[in-house]
Write a structure and sequence with these properties.
Pyruvate-ferredoxin Oxidoreductase, domain 3; about 25% strand; alpha/beta
């Protein structure tokens, strides 16, 4: 198997580190070698957070270079646009439609770009753009949007849905497990219905 490259992007507090652990656990359960690299940035202040997950028969480096990501899993639209150059031709962007204003927008120095999902789609990018937070809220807690996003992308992340679900069960703390499993199931079912 050729190494699979997944980038997880978002802002601090959205659960990207848990998402990387879930994908790492799924890769390990599948018998693959896995390397994870976490780049925190200004995560405590709502800044950009990027995580690389690479898995395959042999993985020599945890880093994904521009144009190499098979999948970008994005928790926020502006972060999806920011990291789009890392997606390889024919790769897939799975993004939440949530918009979180960065500091320049908050202080009035800039405006949040309108219609980002549509603009990305018009570039010819394979895009899955869904309201993961709404799915998670329907499951019982909007904070499970990261797991809902994994469920939305289950068919392109390279794992069997049951393996991904098992990784969610393994990695999510007991107190949040039921809601997260429900969010994953709802999102995976939603995507299959598309």
């Amino acid at each position: 198997m050729i190494t699979k490259n997944i980038m997880i992007v978002g802002v601090g507090g959205q659960g990207s580190l848990l998402a990387s652990r879930i994908l790492g656990a799924a890769a390990t359960a599948g018998g693959y070698e896995v390397k994870i690299s976490e780049v925190h940035g200004m995560s405590q202040r709502g800044g950009s957070v990027v995580t690389y997950v690479r898995y395959g028969k042999e993985v020599s480096s945890p880093v994904i270079c521009q144009g190499e990501a098979d999948v970008i899993l994005s928790f926020e639209l502006l972060e999806a646009a920011r990291w789009l150059p890392f997606l390889r031709p024919g790769g897939t962007l799975i993004t939440a439609t949530q918009e979180i204003n960065p500091m320049p927008v908050i202080i009035g120095a800039a405006e949040y770009p309108a219609g980002l999902a549509k603009k990305i789609d018009e570039l010819g990018v394979n895009i899955i753009a869904e309201d993961a937070a709404a799915i998670a809220q329907s499951a019982g807690n909007g904070k499970a949007a990261n797991v809902a996003l994994i469920g939305l992308g289950a068919h392109v992340l390279g794992f069997d849905t049951a393996v991904l679900r098992g990784a969610v069960e393994e990695c999510v703390p007991a107190k949040a497990k039921e809601i997260n499993l429900r969010a994953f199931d709802m999102a995976a079912s939603h995507q299959r219905a598309q």
